[in-house]
Amino acid sequence: MAQHKIAILLHDEFEMWRPPAWFVEKLRAEFPQAEIACSTQKRDDEQALEGADVMIGWSLPPEQLRAAKSLRWIYSITAAVDQFLYAEFISTDIALTNAGNVHGPVVAEHAIAMLLALAKRLPSAVRYQDRRKWAMEAIWNEQPRPREVRGATMVVVGLGSIGADVASMAAALKMHVIGVREHPERGAAEAHEVVGYNALDNAIARADFVVLAAPLTPRTRHLIDARRLQIFKPSAFLINVSRGSLVDEAALVKALRDRRLAGAALDVFEEEPLSRWSPLWKMPQVLITPHTAFLTENVWQRHYEVFAANLKRYLAGQPLENVIDKKRGY
What we know:
By secondary structure, this protein is an alpha/beta fold. The chain has helices at 21-30, 45-49, 62-67, 87-90, 100-119, 122-130, 136-141, 161-172, 200-206, 226-229, 249-257, 299-315, and strands at residues 4-9, 34-39, 54-57, 73-76, 95-97, 153-157, 176-180, 193-195, 209-212, 237-240, 263-266, 286-288. It has 2 domains: 4-99 and 296-315, NAD(P)-binding Rossmann-like Domain (Rossmann fold, 3-Layer(aba) Sandwich); 102-288, Rossmann fold, CATH 3.40.50. Helix content is 33%, strand content 15%. Strand 10 (237-240), helix 11 (249-257) and strand 11 (263-266) form a beta-alpha-beta unit. The model has no long low-confidence stretch (mean pLDDT 96).
């Protein structure tokens, strides 16, 4: 009889959210002491959870939590874990670990790609390409003009698994990097300066690019609001690869219309999918990607490495890595 049971609750229509067959087979081969129960549809979740002490998934609604009497550890396949942080779950002793180490480097690459696209006016070039127009002069005359990123100031809000990699890549591009974090005294080797949230306004006022990589907590919800959008340089860009609710979307639309900032690159939105009626779609100074920053063909290989390493610790009674402080939310 297996001493442990792992419930895998992932049955989304989108292929990337579902573990491939080899993932489950490899777990069974490497950890024969654990029973692996895969739920392929929502109605099978409760049966999979019955007697399970470990769960792999991206959410656990309160009714499932109440049914999961044996649960001791949840591995979230997402980096952000705000979907778990309701009062009933926070008050349990269930450990929650996330996939920040899986997604961090990949999402950071996406943020840098967005930054370069904005700086080099690539969305404009694509629009002119669709019209077969040779638009050298037109692109030069756009505001802001194409620019260098070397020497530009980037503010990275949040220096976790994503933000630290964004800062490191930006520094490699010879940008000046200001990191903003909850505990600035911890510093960050990747940033040239590290400040707390109390100095965010001053950092934004200096920024050419602001990248949001912070978790969604009561403190960070609508962190970028109408007041802060007034602080941006008119030539600065906002990039969000974290959670849509860090930005007051209506305020952002107004600020962009009023030319309070040069543009925005957004991978995440307050409501997803983004409504087809959102004015953001039609704004030429906005680059939209449909929450694709985490996509990579290697994602499940990376999940396996992170989860299996932690599972070895769990089975040996050792402390888990990447544990979320449920009260703080990160």
